[in-house]
Write a structure and sequence with these properties.
Elements (H helix, E strand, L loop, with lengths): L1 H5 L3 H13 L4 H21 L5 H19 L12 E6 L7 H12 L3 E6 L4 H11 L3 E5 L6 H13 L4 E4 L8 H5 L4 E3 L2 H10 L12 H4 L7 H7 L1 H15 L8 H24 L2 H17 L4 H15 L4 H16 L13
Parallel strand pairs: 1-2, 1-3, 3-4, 4-5
Length: 348
């Protein structure tokens, strides 16, 4: 399967899946123990700079089409005797495969599934629930910078009496952010999610007027709001000042400068997510991962990241939680061994 996907042989990949089904392998096993691990390896190989972005996208597109072929195979069609579940990715979350795998597993187990796909704005999700109803919403997010959007979706669903099962790497390997944001349940994978839904998730009490600050009182200091609103200006200032302290930037091409600006933008976004959750590990884990990615691409990680963090600290000198996060990240960056790895879920 790995060879078929990375050689862009879509027909071969589909043949492997169909042959497995015809040999009696369950569709759920094919989805979760064959297709999902192959896609995780695609992400790991991209992180290690052994697959290009284009190769990763091509492999992911084949994976999507193979899943569609499996879903329409006569051997896996299951009438839906159970209830109705809406599966959706949070607003601005484009990593759709984990949600797609869950939707297919739930369908196989007899649920009627409304799969809304990637990047579903909260108002559209709520409108769908009003028009179609659901026993629960399975909400997926892979990137922690989407946690504020996830929180808004969780709160809105619960406000109309629909419980939320959260899943995906954004919520932490132990579900800590799902609990922090008030989700009714969390699952580490599709099998566990399906079992929780079968066991039943308590319907939330209507929480009219509940706001995000009710769950996260530390937001009262306004640091998250101010940093999020000034993201563009912070990126511009860091990029300008970085040229003075990182001379190698003088030789950068226009695409290299654009990538650098994107990297700085990601740093500010993850700083905002860490401020939102008040969790230092969220930010430091991202900085270590970024250093690994840069190292795999022969970019001097410490020399480029450390100045950017220092400039950010100077720009945010009046924000004590931001300073704490940036100081800890610089300390860990100075001491952490670097080896190319994958930010959990980022490419799934």
């Amino acid at each position: 399967m790995w060879t078929a996907v990375t050689c862009r042989d879509e027909y071969r990949a589909a043949d492997i899946v169909c042959a497995a089904l015809e040999d009696g392998v369950s569709a759920e096993t094919v989805l979760l123990d064959l297709i999902a691990p192959v896609q995780m390896k695609v992400g790991a190989e991209w992180a290690a700079n052994r697959l290009s972005v284009a190769q990763e996208h091509a492999a992911s597109a084949i994976t999507e089409r193979v899943i569609a072929a499996l879903a329409h195979h006569p051997a896996v069609r299951t009438p839906p005797p159970l209830g109705r579940i809406t599966v959706a990715c949070v607003n601005q979350e484009w990593h759709v495969l984990p949600a797609r795998l869950l939707a297919e597993v739930l369908t196989l187990r007899g649920w009627q599934v409304d799969f809304l796909g990637a990047q579903v704005p909260t108002p559209h999700l709520i409108a769908h629930l009003h028009h179609n109803g659901a026993d629960a919403v399975a909400l997926s997010s892979s990137i922690p910078t989407r946690l504020p959007d996830a929180h808004a979706a969780i709160t809105a669903c619960q406000a109309i009496g629909v419980p939320v099962l959260a899943g995906g790497a954004a919520f932490g390997p132990d579900g800590r952010y799902a609990r922090l944001l008030g989700a009714n349940a969390w699952a580490p994978d599709a099998r566990a999610a399906a079992q929780q839904l079968a066991d039943g998730i308590p319907t939330p009490s209507l929480a009219a007027g509940r706001q995000q600050i009710d769950d996260l009182p530390h937001l009262a200091d306004q640091e998250y709001t101010l940093v999020a609103r000034s993201q563009g200006q912070l990126v511009k200032e860091v990029l300008t000042r970085l040229e003075d302290v990182f001379p190698a930037m003088a030789a950068y091409t226009a695409p290299q400068r654009e990538r650098t600006a994107e990297d700085i933008g990601h740093i500010v976004d993850f700083l905002g997510a860490a401020l939102y959750t008040d969790d230092d590990d969220l930010f430091t884990t991202f900085i270590t991962w970024t250093a690994d990615i840069l190292t795999a691409r022969h970019v001097p990680a410490t020399q480029s990241l450390h100045p950017a963090l220092t400039i950010l600290a100077a720009e945010l000198k009046d924000f004590p939680r931001s300073i704490r996060l940036l100081d800890r990240a610089r300390l860990i960056l100075d001491s952490a061994p670097l080896s190319a790895g994958t930010l959990p879920g980022a490419t799934a």
